[in-house]
Protein 1
Amino acid sequence: MFNPLDHKGIPLDKQVRSWRELDVEPIDPEAVDPYTRCRIITMNGIETEAILFSHQFARNNADVDVRRQLAFTRYAESQQQRVVNWLLPGLASVLETTLGYEQVAVDLTAWVARHEPDPYLRQAYEFGVLEDFDHLYRYANLYEMVERRKAEKVVDALTEVMPGRPTVVEHRHPFDEVRTPYDKNAVDAQSKLNALTILSAEQQVMIYYMNVGPQYMEPIARQLYQEISLIEQEHVTHYESLLDAGENWWERLLTHEYNECWLYHSFMEQESDPRIRAIWELHLQMELGQLQVAADLLRRYDGREPEQIVGSAGVPEPLRFEPNKEYLRHLLATQIDLNKLGEGYVREAHERFEWMQEQLHAGEQPPSERVIGMHRDEFGDEYRIETEGPHPVESLRAREGTRRA
Amino acid sequence: MPDDTTEDVVDLLLDQHARIEELFLLAAGAGGRTRADAFAELVRLLAVHETAEEEIIHPLSRTLPGDNDAMVDERLREERAAKETLAALIDGGVDSPGFETGIMLLRTSVLEHARYEERYEFPRLRRHVPPDRLRQLAVAVRAAEAVAPTRPHPGAESATANLAAGVPLAVVDRIRDAVRGAAGS
């Protein structure tokens, strides 16, 4: 098993890159493996979280030496983020990148759910993935309306496109988004990495939608981004509340670096594009160097060894992007009508849920419903990719509709 | 497909961009007869599409508020460059050794050109031109599609040979006449 703590990596003072090194060739959107795009989007979210976390850490620590050390590592992470995110091509539209984000949210969360040892945490991922699955379907319909192209161009047939838990019922009272955290001393080391990974990915989705949404002129596009970005914010609340608030800044820094090592190592193993694989490999070596810095800070200021935080067994098995169609169909068939109450899950529409729905919808259809209606009006049907047969939930099967010639 | 009565000229051009992307995938990725057919259809569609843009869209853009000449000139320059690459590909034919490299170059320049239009030109049309006028102009683009033969000289040896035999110029003239007639009415 790969143990990042056994490697020195590239020392931090060898990590500053020149303009030439930052000027990466973007992927070809017409020819790229969709899961290469997913790995890029994932690592962008991971690096973004690393940067934001480091800024918060610095604002909460008055020691100038610590602040300088954090600033140096953060600069290297910022260059990593610029390289990773700049692999996305200018040729792709905002909506095409959005479809990539939702494919990440679906297949990344599904993989994590399948590999999560703790049942309560697994339930949190299973719950969340059915919501992102629905967003993919809503955006795919918007995409065909606004850009006259089919989502299959982006997601290929690797991920199905059909309704999940309908976005209209994803709006709950914020109290009910808050979960029970894991216990940092009792939970499996993989659970910590899983939680941080999904939190980072969802946070990036939220940041992206809340910023790019107003770039559209079409009212329905602006409105749909507004609605789904609010759900993504609730997802960040949902996932961040799983983390143990008792983890101090030093151990959280270590976990962040360790997690980045796990993910770059995973993607290096799986990457189909040799040029991109070389970037994952380089970034892994950089992260190993950054992990050493975090481990030194932990020893010096917290008096603990890194193994006390992440164990000495090495990283979990490599995280993989792969189709999760059967698993998602199983979740659709068994958990579509699940709702949240307090820190648990229920099947009824309780009072607090109804209150929130009334405040927000105010007797009208939300954009996520209207986008499907508008698509039906314009094209005669809905856009779906159902490669494995009809929708497992009968009430969510496509209504009869014919494309107008 | 969407309803003809609500579709405007921007919708139609977006549809064509989507079809052009698909045909490039086939022409670059497939082999044999599929490649030859896709390339022939691509040549036809590009002729229809670029003629409609040159005759209707770009002149209209020049009349919109603000100075749009530099943007339009840049789009026209891209179109000219793409035509030269296309002519070389037609001359060489789908079986020539340089075809694969050439079609990828053409694909990149055509798709970039299309994205520039979608990002900087079409939104201005939707913002400044009355919806009725944009719907009328869709009629002109449909007329252009109607006069372009679905297969140049059907039944002949190969589609590529037909194209090389000078069909595009004649076709373009007919398309241009159709566009001008419909747009002016």
Note: The two ends of chain B are 26 Å apart (CA to CA).
Protein 2
Amino acid sequence: MNEVSPILHVVGQDLARTDAVPKTTGTATYTVDISFPGMLHAKVLRSPHAHARITAIDASAARNMPGVHAVVTRDDLDGLNPTYGYFIKDQPIVAIDKVRYIGDTVAAVAAETELQAVAALERITVEYDLLPVVPTIDTAMAEGAPELFEEEPMGIVPAYGQGASGARRIGRNNCYRFSYETGAAEAFDTCDRIFEDRFVFSRDQHFHLEPFVTVARMDGDVIEIWTSSQNPFPLRKELARVFQYPENQIRVKVPYLGAGYGAKNNCKTEPIAILLARMSGRPVRYCMTTEENFLTQCQHAAILDVRTGVMADGTFVARSGRILLDAGAYSDASPLVAEKAGYRLPGPYKWQHLNIDCDCILTNTTPAGPYRGFGGTQASWASESQIDIIARALGRDPLDLRMQNVKDLGEAYVPGESGIDSDLRAGLQLVADRAGYGERSHGDGRGMGVSIGFKDAGGVNKPAQARVRITTTGGVYLECGTIEIGQGIHTSMSQIVAELLNTGLDRVVYPGLNTDYTPFDQGTNASSAVVVMAQAVQQATLEAKQKVLDFAARELDCSVDEIELDDWSIRKGNESHPLAPMVMRYYGGTGYEFTGAGFFKPEMDHAAPLETQCVSWEFGWGAAEVEVDRDTGLIHLRQLVVSGDAGRAINPLVCRGQDEGSAVMGLTGVLFPCMVYDGAMLMNGNGLDYRVPLATDIPDGFVSILQEQGHGPGPFGAKSLGEGCMLPVASAIANAVEDAIGVRIRELPLTPERVLAAIDRAAAGDTGA
Amino acid sequence: MSGEFVFVSCTVNGAAREFHVRPEEMLIDVLRDRLALTGTKLSCDLGACGACTVLLDGKPVSSCGTFAWQADGADVRTVEGLVAADGRLDPVQRAFVENSAFQCGFCTPGMIMLARALLDRDPAPDRPAIRAWMGANICRCTGYEMIIEAVEKAAELTAETGE
Amino acid sequence: MYTHSTDAGWISRTHRAISPFRLEKPETLSDAVDAISAAGDVTIIAGGIDLVRRMRGGDTWNAVVDISGLAELRAIEDGGDKIRIGALATHWDIETDSVLASKMPDFQMAWKTIGNIRIRMTGTVGGNLMAAEPGYDGRVLLAAAGGSLVFLTQRGEVTVPADAGPENIPPHALLTGIEVPARGAGIAFDRSLKPVVSVAVGLDGERARVSVGCAYDHPQCWSGPVEEIDDAVAAFPPEPRNNPMGSAAYRRRMITVLARRLADRLTAGEPS
């Protein structure tokens, strides 16, 4: 569609977002704002132990407490499939045989007030038989370590295409392995130099300000929920399985989301809220606290061993890697994250051979799941750090080495894959120039680093449907399942529709999601909306438009080629024919709606490693400048220049917000402590002790540059955006630290203590760091 | 005595209000539950994130950590109260709209009230002053730069219109 | 973690599950002292920032004594050789006070780094000091300034130096204010390594004071001749906290680095 219209009136404009007024005046409705008369409040009892068998549980006293209407323990799960998960159904609604991390859900109460619910929970007694605890990847994999699951939970390994494969339970607490291989392993034998490095990645928590929250009630036989979810349709399917209930008897409604960053996929607060609502016959609100968010979902910590062979002239030849993801206590989305972390480890470079395994290791900690970047953050951290290590060893400038080896525009990522749809060299040069990389002074405690963050975007095999309805008077409904999670998608999708209909943005309405009416979507994730759903939206819009034009041509007794849609009139030469009266003349005074349907799904393709070719490739180019305090190890970030490629920006201001927001989110895992565990006990899992970046943490030298290279597959050349700019941040900063003080740090976050320890080791002559 | 109600008289967004509250009842719940002013959001519930920021006699406070009786005799303002009777938005709201200074919107009412408190004190703050002041509240979406620019813009709008 | 636990498990409450309490609003200082001296679990509320957090975590009190109406506790008074700051003075009152600006600009500047604007406009000096949170800066700064805490009890006024340990705080005592020597002592403060460690140094002629926060349950303080500062800093601090947030060795080393740096800065007359 690049050639649709050289002059765009709506697309590409910095129009005010369609949710701007509700969100700035306090009228926007979120799930936390949903309330019903007689609504009960759910609270849960959480495991105080990291790993224990439940030998007895007695909630009888709780059931008789004032205000209590329902209590759920493992004894209340009859008739359910009580476990859920993505590939592996291992997470119970409430603990059944064991608890597997501190914070695991043991029991739940619905009462008229929260205080009553808490008082009832205090009366529940549980006997635990403590088991050995494995809070880290190393301890969980060790010989003789206890298995979190003694028996294999129900689950699947999906089909993969060329070079890719999956496996379950291939080692102790190893719940899933993704592997990818291409080219001959002998390529390593031809290399002049081989580099082997271990990188460690810490785990952030999403820190979405709206907590996990669901309001559930029974509407006759229909289970009706309002929930803060990024993927209501897959959620509905999973709930149907858990409750053994027809999908069309479960109604999921999604108001505005107070963000998610990946966390709000699949079952979180929903099963307990529904169960309590069914048992009590009353509406139930289950809203977690921030502390409970920390005990529900987080990013994957990781250990990444990367082996890379290169020629003396800097040519990249072969890379192998083994990634160990800390999955936490349940598999959740770990197998999917493993696919992506493994698949993204090569980075956008030319290789003859790749061989990568990514394993998900269960530990007695908070379950890890989808988190912005989805494995790409971990992979980019290792890959882009090692490129600087290689450059320094070869006496090459790290920027030049990247320029030498990056994929060309249009070059397939790996055999069977689609072509890279950005000019990588242009993006890298842009951020380097803006930061003053070529003219930098470095080594004296101050230095710069660059990085290319990389991921495949658009999801895997995502089907998307959309519907466009145009009323008698030209009002447009865009019915589409993409969730407004903050990314501005209601606005950008509506801008696309308005542009295609040659009308104003104010004519387009994007109704809230209700699975009873909204066309199917697989989920708001993978930076997919503007390249996957938007193609369905475009098709739906054009179909509706064609119906209007066909109708008008018939009414005006002319050929469709002679007329154009101009707002809600038909332009024919110099004549303008308002459509409303024309519609009513034909369809009657009661009016009519023109409807268009759209569908998009990438083709199945067994030659593609993930069974469909990647829809769009997402990049974040980054350049960082730091000043390192050699006495304390404190890093002062002086500049952070990031850039993403929107292909064609539907709304440039919205795009800017995505790039800047993701870059700053990326700082969390670099300059702040992240989730700090003392054994299996999380030390800082609350809003006060957990540090996310504040306005005062952002340097004046923070800049984002929006590129529109024009090569995207979405409408008007749009590309995926919104995750890319978080991906280069960690490695750009670590690379800058080495540029500044000659010390390579391979473990995140770059806390002052860790930096100082590395300085000490370097001073002692240990260059291995 | 436990359970005894406390009488609270205050103005909320300019209107006189009277309540009998329990001592442990929080201002945020009076605003959200009794007055249906749900723009004010609860998030961290520890006074750290600022999503629940309202103005109490012009001071930005966390309404999740302010007992309702602490508002006795005070002037309480929420994000809803910034909208004029004729529907016209406050310059801070207009600037947030025009600059796209929000994403998910959950922190936005608190951010807007925080900014309002700044501009009430200092109609022309410089960028470092804005950054320091706005550092009180957490936004996980935007990366802050567009918020800071919106506060600058709000100051300009105020100067232009004399509001 | 701000959760409360039973043998059976953890419960994370919101403020909506704060246990009911009786509210008392004394109108005089002596009534306030009587109220907190009464039997039963009684606590004081001023700004409320810390108390609400503790109650949300599950702490309960029969009665809460609101002293915010005692206007006399809010004053900042120039007492010649010392400045008296009322316990109800907010952080904002301190950072905008003209007496402090002219006589103790260093102290004022350092105090400005506390919390954020919401906390500074509501939080009080008394609340910050009496919360005795390891990560709070008020006590660290006050100790470096050579200040003291003034309490009122039913037996009269008690003054406790800010560098004294928590065991020196009298029971059933109402903090009425703090006193800060106004001898032009320079104060410098470094909080850049929080929450691992924070250090404040005060210089008053030939005498130096060092106080260390975050690394202990309570701030650790030393005072002595300025030329002994290096030896003292190496010797006086007990073993700091050792946990995954920060090792004892790192914290100890940073105490020496930051103290030396701050002392040099003060000696050179640089602004804090």
Note: The first helix of chain A runs from residue 20 to 25.
